[in-house]
Amino acid sequence: MEIPLLSDIVIILGLAVVVILLFQRFRLPTILGFLATGVIAGPHGLSLITATHDIEILAEIGVILLLFIIGMEFSLKSLALIKRTVLLGGATQVLATIGLVWLVMLLFDFSHGEAVFMGFLIALSSTAIVLKILQDKGEINSPQGRVVLGILIFQDIIVVPMMLLTPLMAGGTEDVGTALLWMALKGAFVIVFVLISARYLVPMLLFAVAKTKSKELFILCVVVICFAVAWLTSSLGLSLALGAFMAGLIISESEYSHQATSNILPFREIFTSFFFVSIGMLLDFSFMLQHLPIILFFTLLTFIIKGTVATVAARMLQYPLRISLLVGLSIFQVGEFAFILSKTGITQGLLSEETYQYFLSVSLLTMAVTPFVIEYYQKIARVIGAPFTSGEEPMPYNVTAADDHGELPHLDDHIVIIGYGVNGRNVAKAARHAQIPYVIVELNAITVKQERKMGEPIVYGDAVHPMILSHINMQKARVVVVAISDPEATRRIIASIREISDRIHLIVRTRFVQEMEENYRLGADEVIPEEFETSIEIFTRVLNKYLMPRDEIENFTQMIRSDNYEMLRSMAGIKNNSSAGFNLDLPEIEVASLRVLTKDEEIVGKPLLESGVRHRFHVTVVAIKRDGETILNIDAHTYIHKEDILYVVGKPAEIMRFNNYLKADGF
């Protein structure tokens, strides 16, 4: 028996392989390859696909899985942190876009209802495309990434009232007050359900499933949670994608979120490809060619309107112009939810077939250029913002010039910490403990306000601007730590610092090894890539457990670092004469450091020979650390004092027994 959907899947995936291989050869984005596949295989192309409705269902599954994983990688706590971005930034972007598009459409003799509805469509951006690209670039946690995510979340939520208002604008219903009240009640129910599930229900369920140690059951449980919550929100008249995002948030609060993400990721990649292909299948390519000048004009107009409005929205959130421009250059396109909403508009008579094809052409063109724009959006933002950033970025309301100018000019020989995330906070904590003067530069105005109230020497500003660096006495600093999540901004900061001084010791945190070479070239003294330092730390601990000599471990790690971290990939080829004959097949022994807390006079204040440590506990003391100094010449006449740290060798069980004895109460 022939299955039409199976042949269509084979055609789509097979054609996608060929097209994407061709696109990769010319270094074109993968997403663009999927869109092109849809155009070629669709009804307006070669008509290779027959089960178009089934393909749309697979595409919908792709969007569900995409937002499900985004929800898992986020969390309710993270969402609470950006609630201002979601509400203020999202509302500004959506409402201002609708207003401007409404005015433009009135100029082309559209009715008020049609003009507002077109504003609805244009206001929505592509969550699937933008978040995937930002994730691939590692910028989802950058300042622009957080603002973009907040605005996109608001857009996904606002789709629901848009769909309720559409019949009203078409004259299909008059009881809009009841409909909006009913929608608010549904939304409140979903929020309560998510909070209760995240706190109580899902952690208990996943714990019970994880105890079975069945991988199949765990995957099944995660998939059921995803689609069950999506189905619930859909049944309430909300969007499937919003339900999937909520399901991800529920699981993100449990300790099993990382395992769930790794299990679902392969499915997401397959189904999201169907989504992009299905979007391409909607386009009537011949119509686009016939009306190309008009379509290009409206595409450019959409780019300008949406980009400008999103930039203004980010500025209202008190982000610098550079970050605001990056936000505008990220969400200028028309998104996937607009296609769903457009079907409602066609049904209600707010969108003619011709207007629909114009809308499709403009939407797909904006989607198609999105990967190129985001790839180069740092450079584009620099060019656009150059005339407006010749001076210092304005301070937000919560950082007064009097505060800063009253404190910072006295800084000398200090540490400058750029970025106040986890790494920045730890550096500040260490500097505070060591009583080293420091100053923090942070882009998040809310963080600046909160930390300033707690007494932190923190200022608002974008450190890529020399005026900000001058304001924090950069020329007098001894050490600068750059700990931000924006690779392009990091490079610009390094260049700006080196223009000020060559003597400053510059330490840079990056995410990936590939970013090291460029940062060193620009003038960084030390570049610490997170992905590699994690592997170094793991390997060091592994070798320590096998009792490889400390100097050999240090030589090994130094060898890796000196070769630009490439030695780790060829571990088998390392030739080290000093350890060539080292035998890792050792008896069950352990080296441990134990603190002497007991007051037992049988050990404290007596030499090792009289205390009988070796005879009684079957462990050997090989070194003692006392008052910050390490005693290595250990013999029978060496005394043990209270608060000494003893370095001992022995079997794990015997060391544990000795450690219990050394505790304050002894046996």
UniProtKB/TrEMBL annotation:
Belongs to the monovalent cation:proton antiporter 2 (CPA2) transporter (TC 2.A.37) family. Signal peptide: none annotated. It comes from the Bacteria. Keywords: Ion transport, Membrane, Potassium, Potassium transport, Transmembrane, Transmembrane helix, Transport. The chain crosses the membrane at residues 6-23, 30-51, 57-74, 86-108, 114-134, 146-168, 188-210, 217-250, 294-317, 323-346, 358-377. This is Cation:proton antiporter. The lineage of its organism: Bacteria, Pseudomonadati, Bacteroidota, Cytophagia, Cytophagales. Residues 579-664 form the RCK C-terminal domain. It is found in: Membrane. Pfam families: Na_H_Exchanger, TrkA_C, TrkA_N. It is a multi-pass membrane protein. It comes from Pontibacter toksunensis. Residues 412-529 form the RCK N-terminal domain.
